[in-house]
Write a structure and sequence with these properties.
Elements lengths: L4 H19 L8 H14 L3 E6 L3 E7 L8 E7 L26 H18 L5 E7 L7 H7 L2 H5 L3 E8 L7 E3 L2 E4 L1 E10 L3 E2 L9 H12 L1 H6 L6 E10 L6 E2 L2 E10 L2 H21 L3 E10 L2 E3 L1 H15 L2 E3 L9 H7 L2 E7 L18 H15 L5
Parallel strand pairs: 3-4, 3-5, 5-16, 6-15
Antiparallel strand pairs: 1-2, 2-4, 6-16, 7-14, 8-12, 8-13, 9-11, 10-12
Helix pairs in contact: 1-3, 1-11, 2-3, 3-11, 6-8, 9-11
Length: 388
């Protein structure tokens, strides 16, 4: 099944949806305009059931095939939310909302799944049920978990679920995937290092939390270099350091460190948190200070299921001619929650030579739309063939 001609015909229409969503980005669960647009389109397409308000602002639609004797129900998921970034592309369809930007391509994901939904509702050339899922709050809000907690999988009888993300640097419309652990668990931490402040000219009368923090930042790197198995991918990054002093001649009383930990196995995830607590307690005490660690576990490791990965790759090859072995990704992805609930797979689709995601100059590549739409439809038509 190559790229479907219907999507070449619909390309301009789908692009217009994508650019409209891009112009009006919404963050986390505040996707009210986007969700209303999605709901309106799905009803216009003639979907059999359209339900809003799942996961606060999520939208789910049911499309029944020409026959439904197979009993199969397959879910397709796209994310809708934007990032709190000021856009610097200078494009005509650039964000009109200060401080918000579709810098990760969720506008493209949403538009492509809408295109696929329109096609599936028109043709119904499959035997089973397709469930299209439009999710808010992927960027840090765990919207996928909230939709699952709302009982989405059970309510719609979803048996398998598939997701897609555009990938800059890969040729537009090409695909890449891997079995098992794919995207990392994404945790975050805050450490308050406490000492005894005083005059900067009399450090002997203080317990300097800035010096303690500098040693702690360096020591935290040994979690990766000396505690984790070298063949395990692990990242510990301290990304912010703020002292309670704002002047030149005052040693502060405290320092706040913030950062993230990325791991690809539960064992290493537990190890990283354990060692971080031990270093905070013991290293700080050695300097006469103390530390308070707040460690928050975020998205779990996103693991593709073997059978569904093979199938998703087969469909991708039928659309794009090939499907590469994708690299491990240390970024987080809350589709992980859906893959914990149901078997499925997540694939990368090339966005061409564009700025990387989360960059102020990023834009989704509209040339990739027919490939993405064809992959979505291929999943449904090949998993639930009409002749079954």
């Amino acid at each position: 099944m190559p790229i479907k001609n219907r999507f070449a015909e619909m390309h301009e229409e789908i692009t217009s949806w994508r650019r409209d969503i891009h112009e009006h980005p919404e963050i986390l669960f505040e996707t009210h305009r986007t969700s209303a647009l999605v709901e309106s389109k799905l009803k216009e397409f003639g979907c059999d059931e359209v339900v809003s308000g799942i996961g606060h602002t999520g939208v789910v639609a049911v499309i029944k095939g020409g026959k439904s004797t197979s009993g199969r129900v397959v879910g397709l998921r796209a994310d809708m939310d934007a990032l709190p970034i000021n856009e610097e592309t200078g494009l005509e369809h650039a964000s009109k909302t200060p401080g918000a930007m579709h810098a990760c391509g969720h506008d493209g994901h949403t538009a492509m799944l809408l295109g696929a939904a329109k096609y599936l509702a028109e043709t119904r050339n499959f035997n089973g049920t397709a469930v299209v899922i439009f999710q808010p709050a992927e960027e840090g809000g765990a919207g996928g978990k909230v939709m699952c907690d709302d009982g989405m999988m059970e309510r719609f009888g979803i048996q398998e679920v598939y997701g897609l993300h555009n990938w800059p640097g890969m040729p537009a419309g090409m695909f890449g995937i891997r079995k098992g652990a794919f995207f990392a668990a994404a945790d975050q931490f805050e450490i308050v290092v406490e000492g005894l402040g005083g005059h900067a000219a009399k450090p002997q009368d203080t317990v300097d939390p800035t010096v303690i923090s500098a040693h702690l930042v360096a020591a935290l790197q040994t979690i990766v270099s000396r505690n984790a198995d070298p063949v395990e991918q692990t990242v510990v990054s301290v990304t912010s350091m703020e002292t309670s002093s704002v002047t030149y001649n005052v040693i502060p009383t405290s320092v706040l460190l913030k950062g993230t930990v990325r791991t690809l196995s539960p064992k290493i995830r537990d190890l990283a948190e354990k060692r971080m607590r031990e270093l905070c307690d013991n290293l700080c005490a050695a300097f006469g200070g103390k530390a308070r660690l707040t460690y928050e576990r975020g998205y779990p490791v996103m693991c593709n299921h073997d059978e569904q990965t093979d199938f998703a790759a087969e469909v991708a090859r039928s659309v794009g001619g090939q499907c590469e072995d994708a690299p491990l990704v240390m970024g987080g992805e809350d589709f992980a929650y859906m893959l914990e609930e149901r078997p499925g797979a997540y694939i990368l689709m090339g966005n061409g030579d564009t700025a990387m995601v989360h960059n102020t100059k990023y834009d989704f590549n509209d040339d990739a739309i027919p490939s993405g739409c064809s992959w979505w439809v291929g999943l449904i038509e090949q998993r639930m063939p009409a002749h079954n």
